[in-house]
Amino acid sequence: MTDKHHGRLTRDGIRIHGAEDFSGMYRAGALAAHILDDIAAHVFVGQTTGELDRLIEQQVNDAGAKSATIGYKGYKHASCISVNHVVCHGIPGDKKLKDGDILNIDVTVIVDGWFGDTSRMYVAGKRSRKIERLVQVTHDALMKGIEAVRPGNTFGDIGHAIQAYVEAQRMSVVRDFCGHGLGRVFHAPPNVLHFGRPASGPVLEEGMFFTIEPMVNLGRPETKVLADDWTAVTRDKSLSAQFEHSIGVTADGCEIFTLSPAGRFHPTWD
Ligand code: MF3
Ligand code: CO
Ligand code: CO
Predict the structure, then answer these.
(1) How far is the CA of 23 from the centre of ligand 3 (A)?
(2) Alpha helices in the chain (DSSP H)
């Protein structure tokens, strides 16, 4: 019998990947990130999220890859597009983007069996200072979490770094959704919380692959899921932002698999 999964599992059920596995993750991550680079030009006032999703699905297919989200638990689209107070899992549709709308586009692709999962923020039309700040703080929160990733640190250290930073900016971190292990599967242990206590949770080891994907609200952290069973929104209708990278733990830190191949910094306007 052959097993497509190599390497051992920790006692928390977290897979430890080998050196060759990093190159698979890079190829998947690079495609997902490239798609997020390209979609930026198509975000404008009057555009529909359904059309953005159609363009994304086409790019996945043109690359000879597969969408991880189409068919996942009945989900039908190649992306999640979460506008304004939608926290995550927004379903692409016919609604047109309005001036000043903010949106998260989340794409997960499968390349040669490896999953690349990443999301970024975009703005249609003019952006306010308030929006710039929310988006910048959310991106910085992701990077603070990533800076806490090294063998010997814990998942709690990641969550704490994110939470401490966001709350110091007088914004809130969503508790109801988390990052996740991934690799040759979409969602694996552990749950990567974006809040927590230092030195709590499983210890990070070289070869772990997971996402960090903090959602930050201008108002309160509470969310609810709409009747479509997917769309998560802020209960207080405040604006919400999110960035996501897929990363792998190395001997002395981590590699980000989903950095922009074009070297773009995102928020989209840089
Ligand atoms: N890409 C999302 C994540 O970051 C999951 C989307 S699942 C879907 O984990 F079915 F809603 F697309
Ligand atoms: Co994810
Ligand atoms: Co995602």
Answers:
(1) 20
(2) 19-39, 49-62, 129-147, 155-168
